[in-house]
Amino acid sequence: MGADLFGSLAEATCAALVVSSVSIDILTTKDAIYLPLIVTAMGILASFISQFLAKLGPVNKHNVEDRLKLQLLWSSLILTVILIPTIYVLPAESNVEFAG
Description:
The protein is mainly alpha-helical. Helices cover 67% and strands 0% of the residues. The chain starts with a helix and ends in a 14-residue tail after the last helix.
């Protein structure tokens, strides 16, 4: 993974955590702060699975763009399917103390 891709992933995760920790709606339901971490973890899993799907069939210089587009579609679909049951993994209650 390139440093710029990892930096973007880390920055997006940190930004989501900061936004979710100061949101008034989320402060009343403290368990929702875990959602950015769950989405990031499941996104890594979905991208890992979709890289294998990109290798199905022949890959040559004429279909690289199509393969990349299909990989993006597959990873989006896989992440959507994975996230539906993982939303229910969030704890019902949490004892996280928020300063402010």
